[in-house]
Amino acid sequence: MRRSTPAERRLPSSFRDPSGFLFQRDGTLFRQVNEVYREDFQRLMRPDGLYDRLVSDRLLVRHEEAPKEFVDPELGFTVIAPERVPFISYPYEWSFSQLKDAALLTLQIQRLAMEHDMSLKDCSAYNIQFLEGRPVLIDTLSLERYEEGKPWVAYRQFCQHFLAPLALMSYQDVRLSQLLRVYIDGVPLDLASKLLPSRTKWKFSLLTHLHLHAGSQKRHADDAATGKSAKARDAKISKFRLTALVDNLQSTVRKLEWKPAGTEWGDYYADTNYDDQSMAKKQELVARLAAKAKPQSVWDLGANNGHFSRIAAEAAGVAAVAFDIDPVAVEKNYRQIQSDQRKDILPLVLDLTNPSPSLGWHHRERDSLAERGPADLVMGLALIHHLAISNNLPFDHLARFFHDVGKSVILEFVPKSDSQVRKLLATREDIFPDYHEEGFEASFGQWFEIEERISIEGSERTLYFLRRKD
Amino acid sequence: MMIPLESFHLAEPVLAYLDPGTGSIILQAVVGIVLGAVFAIRMFWSRICMTVSGIFGKGGMEKDGEDETEHSG
Question: Cβ contacts (< 8 Å) between B23 and chain A: which residues?
């Protein structure tokens, strides 16, 4: 493998599959398809074949043929330029329904692939991204020719990346999605089996795909050493039975549900600290400032159910990523987007006090939040007091963080006299002598030009529009 | 008659780049037998239902299949 030239960059996450790899050249994304994948690629790209079907149904990203300028000419067969996903997100940032939809998409693709005598050779949740509000497969090279009788090689990976975390979120606790942050190849099935409540053993599908599956893995763990694994590799499963297996996985995933205990979706997050008039004023201001920033990318940090993300996205005419720490708020936001069929909002779960780190081999397989930025516009509405007071973050630290992630920033300052801040200080000592507008401006002024400072009528709060000093 | 060129390629043993796991393959083969049988019964039953509804002209019986394009939203 030759080293990339300075103008080229192989994507560090794209190394496992010998079929090809992603690279960037002069800012454009390409995928080198290797000679070893030639026949699979030709099967995929047949006229009226699987590619056409998947792309017309928006299940797979579209690609264009590109000049055969290989990064690795010895291996290369062809080069394609796939459609770009504006913001790459990861399964540990998805809400329950996002992971569930990604799982159903994967199984739907497998069913369609089998109808075209092809099959998914991997089922990584990282191969699914959200594009225009819906999940889509981004790894064109995941599909291989199906051979009658051959078991599904990606079955284990599907259970680890999708079924195990979904079952844990549904039957135990939605926060267990964070196990995906620890286990990059999905939740180990023996761990899932231990963590799931015993009642899941009475569900035939969860009993087989998770509990018995974990037991079978344990029982045959040493087979390679004793030579028994070669025999297992000869195991056959007919296409009909494989279809039945995938069909069962589909109905299993569809039946998994999650909703927060004792809460109805419609009632959640109805409260705000604004009356109608001051809320209207805040909306108008956010729309004006978002348009003024002329962003290509918007991140709304602490977006709650995405109300202001929508306002900013509409005003600026671009898509917005709506982050919130609360999986309930993110789930609600996602369900609303699905029901409205919106294309411009991507809701994600994120704890800003411990944001997604860089993960995987050489810390380079999955990007941290900061590495996916900076965004042209970052918003932090009704957020600063949670970070500064609940998490003891000095304004200097906050200013530096926002400088790293945003070129323009809309921030709402919430003073100590505000009822929300009073609530935060009610049960603790006030150790925040610098928590006032002057302190805020002194810290943020070191990193940003304070272009606008607007009092929100009918409230005690102030909205700031900041531009990064470079 | 046109015969696709690919038809002449013999099915060669292609090793997966992922380790499918011996335990996973064995479980898959066993569970496949059970699920295959259930699937066959379901298809058979669905055909009976369709035939009956066809004979009596009701047309109101739902096909026992599921919409694969749905999203949970």
Answer: 213, 215-221, 223
Looking up tokens 């998490």, which residue turns up?
A391
Tens of pLDDT, residues A40-96: 999 999 999 999 999 999 999 999 999 999 999 999 999 999 999 999 999 999 999
- Tokens encoding A343: 């294309």
- Return the axis-axis angle of helices A96-115 and A239-255, rounded to nearest 10°: 160
**Closest by alpha carbon to A374, among A350, A402, A400?**
A402
Structure tokens at A159: 């259970």
Cα→Cα distances A50→A40, A42, A46, A82, B69, Å: 11, 10, 7, 16, 16
Window A:297-326, CB contacts with B under 8 Å:
none
The per-type count for chain A, helices as H runs and strands as E runs, is 19, 16
The full length of chain B comes to 73
d(CA A229, CA A218): 13
Q: What is the pLDDT of residues A380-438, one digit of tens each?
A: 999 999 999 999 999 999 999 999 999 999 999 999 999 889 999 999 888 999 999 99
Q: Which two tokens stand for residue A287?
A: 């729309």
Q: How far apart are CA A401 and CA A320, in angstroms?
A: 19
Taking any CB pair shorter than 8 Å as contact, residues of chain B touching chain A are 6, 9, 11, 14, 16-18, 20-29, 31-36, 38-40, 66, 68-73
d(CA A11, CA A23): 5
Distances (CA, A) of A126 to A20, A38, A133: 16, 24, 17
Burial class (CB in 10 A: 0-12, 13-18, 19+), A23: buried
Contact A312, A379 (CB under 8 A): yes
Contact by Cβ (8 Å): A284, A314: no
Strand, helix or coil for residue A356? coil
Q: Look at residues A371, A395, A400, A380 and name the one whose alpha carbon lies nearest to residue A469.
A: A400
Q: Which of A119, A113, A114, A89 is nearest to A102 (CA)?
A: A89
CB-CB contact of A336 with A306 (8 Å): yes
ipTM of the complex, rounded to two decimals? 0.83
